[in-house]
C-alpha cells in the first residue's frame, strides 16, 4: 500500500507583501490564477491535475472498500423517496426521486383530486451535464407560472427561467447571474430577484416584468460589506428586502401589490444590531438582538415601524432564533440550554404552548408551511439515533400526527446504538457540550476509534441529527462525536460572539479540549481520533493540526478556509468585505492582522510531523477559492517531516458543495470515508 508514485512538488516562486511593518513571504501565491474566476493558467492547472493524479493513485487500492461503503450507504437510502405533499392554495406540492435517479422531480395535483402534474424534471435538465443544481423555485400566487433557477457549473451564478404550468411551455424570459430567492409580485406579472455582481456579491434588488427586456432596479446597497436578499412575509402582503453583514441588518418592506412604491425602512441600521421582520394584520413582529444577544420580540405598526414595543423579553436560558406569523397564532423557535424548542403563541396573549419531544438530545424545527391560515403546523424531528420524522402538529388539540419516518431499506435497529450529550470543560473552565453516538458495547478503556466533527463559526450550530452515512463508521466500531464549540450559536448568540474576532482561538482550543476530554473519559486515545471540517470548519482543522498534530489519527479538510490572512487582505475577493465583521479587517487594523497571522493555517505550517491528511477543493468554488486548499497542501508537502499520506483532490467541474447528484456526491463521501477508515486502522485495502 506504500508503493505510491512520488507526490507532486509545487515550485516555490518568490512573492512578498508588507503590511503594518511586517513582510510576509508567500512562495505559493502563483497558484492563484490572475484571471480568476476564469482559471486558465497552464502551470496552475498542471499542478492541480498532478495532485489529482496522485490522489487517484493513492486511492486506487482503496476502491474495493470505497465501493463497499457506497453500496452500504446507498442501501440505506430509499431510492424512490418522496416528500410529504403540502398544500399551497389550490394545489398539493411534493417532490420525489425515480428508482435510481440522481435528481428530484417536482409534482403537484389539485387539492380536490385529479391527475398529478410534473412541473419540473431535474433529471431532464441535468442530462449530459457534469454538474447540476436547482436553486430557487417559486410558484405565482394564481398557480399558473413557475420561476426556477439552475447552476450547471458550481459557480453559484444561477440562470432563472419561467414556465407556464398551464401549457408546459417556457416563456422567452431568461435572467442570467442570479443568486438567492425569486419572489413573485402579487399579480404574477413580475419577479423580484438579486443578481450576483462581478465580485459574486448581491448588492441590488431587481424587478423583472414578464416580456420586458429591461429590468428595474428597486434597491441598491452602497456598503460593499453588506449582502442583499429578497423574500416575503408569511402573509405575503409584503415583500421583504433584507440587507446586512454578519452583525448588522436593515429591513425594507414593499407592498406585494405595488412593488415600485417607495420601500418602507423598518428601522435604520445600527452597527451591531440585527433584526428580521414578519407581519400580522398591519403589526410588525420584529425579532432582534438590540438589548440582549439571546434576542427578544418586539412589535410596531406598519405606520410607525421604528417605534418598538416589547412583546417577549429576552431570556438567559432561551435563545430565540426565529419568529413566524400565521393567521391565528405565531411560532417562536429557539434553543433552551442548547436544545431546540418550538412554541405557539396566541396574539391575544396567554401562556405559550411548547411542543414536547421525548429524547434528551435531538433536532426539531418548523418545516414547510407555505400558507398563512393553517390549523396544523408541519415540523421535522430527528436525533443521532432516531431517523428523520415529519409531523403535523394539530393546533386545536396539541396532537402530533406522524406523516413520514425516514425509511432505511437495508434495515435499522436503534437498540444497536447509544447517544449521549456530554459536557467537557475547556481550558478556561467553560463547559463545552459534545454530542456522541456509538455502537452498543463501545469500549471505555481508551482503545476505541472516534470520529470528531465541528464547525465553530458564523453562529452556525451543528445539529445532533441522524445520518445514514455515519452508520458505516458505527457498524465498524467507530464512535462519532460533534463538538459544539464556541463560534457556533449552540448555546446562544454569546456562544457565537465568544468564538469570533479577538476570541476566535476559543474555537480551536475548545475543539482540542473536547478531544482531550473524550480521551480522559476513556472513549478514545491520541492517534485514534479522526477529525473533519468543511469550509470554516476546514480552517478549524488546519489550526488544530498545526497546534496538536499528535492527537489526530487522520484529518479531513474539505474546501478549507486556510489562507485566512491573504483572503482577508484581498478586498476584491467575493466574500472578503462582508467577512471582516467575522474575522477582523487586517488591512486597516494592525491588531486584527497580528491575530489572524497567529492562527491562519497556511501561515502557520511548520517543520513538524503531521498526521495523514485528505484535503479537498473545487475549481469553481466562489466561497473558498480553489487555491486555498492547493497552497495549504503544497506548503505542507514542503515542510512536514513525516512520511504520512497527504492527498489533495480538486473537483475540476464543481464548486463549494462538491459533485452534484445524490449518488455522485455519495461516491465522493464513500471515497473520503474509505481514506479515514484506512488511516484509523479499521479497514485495510
Going across the major beta sheet, what is the strand order? Answer: 31-32-34-33-35-36-37-38
Count of helices?
Answer: 12
Q: In what range is the share of β-strand residues?
A: 25-35%
Sum up the overall morphology in one term.
globular
The whole-number mean of residue pLDDT values reads: 96
- Distance between the amino and carboxyl termini: 8 Å
Question: Could you give the count of β-strands?
Answer: 38
Structural class: alpha+beta
Can you describe this structure?
It contains twelve helices and 38 strands. A hairpin with a 3-residue loop joins β23 (318-325) and β24 (329-336). It is globular and about 65 Å long. The relative contact order is 0.11.
Quick rundown:
With 685 residues, this protein is of the alpha+beta class.
Layout of strands and helices, then pairs:
Elements: E1 16-19, E2 22-25, H1 42-59, H2 63-75, E3 86-88, E4 91-96, E5 105-110, E6 117-121, H3 122-126, E7 133-139, E8 145-151, E9 158-164, E10 170-178, E11 183-184, E12 190-193, E13 204-209, E14 216-220, E15 227-232, E16 238-244, E17 249-255, E18 264-265, E19 275-280, E20 283-288, E21 296-301, E22 309-312, E23 318-325, E24 329-336, E25 339-346, E26 353-354, E27 363-366, E28 376-382, E29 389-394, E30 399-405, E31 417-425, E32 431-439, E33 449-453, H4 471-474, E34 478-483, H5 493-497, H6 505-520, E35 529-534, H7 536-547, E36 552-558, H8 564-568, H9 576-583, H10 590-599, E37 613-618, H11 627-639, E38 646-651, H12 662-679
Parallel strand pairs: 33-34, 33-35, 35-36, 36-37, 37-38
Antiparallel strand pairs: 1-2, 3-4, 4-5, 5-6, 7-8, 8-9, 9-10, 11-12, 12-13, 13-14, 15-16, 16-17, 17-18, 19-20, 20-21, 21-22, 23-24, 24-25, 25-26, 27-28, 28-29, 29-30, 31-32, 32-34
Helix pairs in contact: 2-12, 6-7
Amino acid at each position: 500500500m506504500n508503493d505510491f508514485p512520488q507526490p507532486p512538488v509545487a515550485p516555490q516562486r518568490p512573492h512578498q507583501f508588507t503590511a503594518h511593518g511586517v513582510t510576509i513571504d508567500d512562495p505559493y501565491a502563483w497558484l492563484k490564477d490572475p484571471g480568476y474566476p476564469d482559471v486558465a493558467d497552464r502551470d496552475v492547472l498542471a499542478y492541480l491535475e498532478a495532485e489529482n493524479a496522485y490522489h487517484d493513485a493513492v486511492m486506487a487500492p482503496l476502491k474495493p472498500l470505497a465501493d463497499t461503503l457506497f453500496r452500504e450507504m446507498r442501501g440505506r437510502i430509499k431510492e424512490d423517496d418522496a416528500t410529504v405533499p403540502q398544500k399551497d392554495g389550490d394545489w398539493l406540492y411534493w417532490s420525489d426521486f425515480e428508482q435510481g435517479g440522481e435528481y428530484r422531480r417536482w409534482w403537484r395535483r389539485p387539492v380536490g383530486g385529479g391527475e398529478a402534474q410534473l412541473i419540473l424534471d431535474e433529471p431532464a435538465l441535468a442530462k449530459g451535464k457534469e454538474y447540476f443544481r436547482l436553486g430557487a423555485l417559486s410558484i405565482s400566487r394564481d398557480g399558473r407560472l413557475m420561476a426556477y433557477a439552475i447552476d450547471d457549473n458550481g459557480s453559484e451564478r444561477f440562470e432563472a427561467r419561467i414556465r407556464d404550468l398551464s401549457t408546459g411551455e417556457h416563456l422567452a424570459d431568461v435572467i442570467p447571474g442570479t443568486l438567492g430567492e425569486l419572489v413573485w409580485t402579487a399579480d404574477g406579472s413580475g419577479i423580484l430577484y438579486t443578481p450576483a455582481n462581478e465580485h459574486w456579491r448581491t448588492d441590488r434588488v431587481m424587478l423583472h416584468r414578464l416580456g420586458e427586456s429591461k429590468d428595474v432596479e428597486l434597491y441598491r446597497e452602497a456598503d460593499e460589506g453588506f449582502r442583499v436578499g429578497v423574500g416575503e412575509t408569511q402573509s405575503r402582503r409584503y415583500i421583504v428586502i433584507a440587507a446586512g453583514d454578519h452583525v448588522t441588518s436593515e429591513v425594507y418592506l414593499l407592498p406585494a401589490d405595488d412593488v415600485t412604491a417607495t420601500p418602507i425602512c423598518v428601522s435604520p441600521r445600527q452597527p451591531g444590531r440585527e433584526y428580521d421582520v414578519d407581519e400580522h394584520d398591519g403589526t410588525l413582529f420584529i425579532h432582534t438582538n438590540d438589548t440582549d444577544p439571546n434576542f427578544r420580540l418586539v412589535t410596531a405598526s406598519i405606520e410607525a415601524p421604528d417605534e418598538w414595543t416589547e412583546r417577549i423579553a429576552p431570556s438567559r436560558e432561551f435563545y430565540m432564533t426565529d419568529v413566524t406569523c400565521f393567521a391565528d397564532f405565531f411560532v417562536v423557535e429557539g434553543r433552551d440550554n442548547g436544545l431546540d424548542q418550538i412554541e405557539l403563541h396566541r396574539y391575544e396573549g396567554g401562556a405559550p404552548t411548547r411542543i414536547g419531544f421525548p429524547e434528551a438530545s435531538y433536532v426539531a424545527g418548523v418545516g414547510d408551511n407555505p400558507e398563512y391560515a393553517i390549523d396544523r403546523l408541519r415540523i421535522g424531528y430527528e436525533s443521532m439515533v432516531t431517523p428523520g420524522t415529519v409531523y403535523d402538529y394539530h393546533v386545536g388539540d396539541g396532537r402530533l400526527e406522524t406523516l413520514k419516518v425516514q425509511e432505511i431499506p437495508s434495515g435499522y435497529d436503534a437498540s444497536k446504538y447509544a447517544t449521549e450529550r456530554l459536557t467537557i470543560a475547556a481550558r478556561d473552565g467553560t463547559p463545552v457540550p459534545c454530542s456522541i453516538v456509538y455502537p452498543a458495547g463501545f469500549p471505555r478503556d481508551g482503545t476505541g476509534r472516534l470520529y470528531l466533527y465541528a464547525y465553530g463559526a458564523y453562529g452556525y450550530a451543528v445539529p445532533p441529527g441522524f445520518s445514514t452515512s455515519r452508520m458505516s463508521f458505527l457498524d465498524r466500531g467507530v464512535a462519532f462525536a460533534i463538538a459544539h464549540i464556541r463560534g457556533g450559536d449552540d448555546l446562544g448568540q454569546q456562544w457565537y460572539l465568544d468564538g469570533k474576532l479577538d476570541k476566535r482561538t476559543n474555537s480551536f482550543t475548545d475543539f482540542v479540549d473536547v478531544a482531550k476530554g473524550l480521551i480522559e473519559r476513556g472513549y478514545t486515545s491520541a492517534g485514534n481520533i479522526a477529525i473533519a471540517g468543511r469550509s470554516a470548519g476546514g480552517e478549524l482543522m488546519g489550526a488544530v493540526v498545526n497546534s496538536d498534530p499528535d492527537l489526530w489519527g487522520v484529518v479531513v479538510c474539505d474546501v478549507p478556509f486556510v489562507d485566512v490572512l491573504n483572503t482577508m487582505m484581498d478586498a476584491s475577493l467575493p466574500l472578503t468585505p462582508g467577512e471582516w465583521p467575522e474575522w477582523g479587517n487586517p488591512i486597516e487594523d494592525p491588531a486584527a492582522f497580528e491575530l489572524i497571522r497567529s492562527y491562519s493555517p497556511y501561515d502557520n505550517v511548520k517543520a513538524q510531523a503531521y498526521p495523514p491528511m485528505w484535503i479537498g477543493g473545487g475549481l469553481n468554488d466562489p466561497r473558498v477559492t480553489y487555491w486555498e486548499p492547493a497552497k495549504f497542501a503544497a506548503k505542507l508537502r514542503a515542510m512536514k517531516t513525516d512520511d504520512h499520506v497527504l492527498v489533495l483532490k480538486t473537483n475540476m467541474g464543481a464548486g463549494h458543495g462538491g459533485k452534484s447528484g445524490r449518488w455522485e456526491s455519495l461516491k465522493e463521501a464513500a471515497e473520503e470515508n474509505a481514506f479515514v477508515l484506512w488511516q484509523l486502522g479499521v479497514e485495510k485495502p
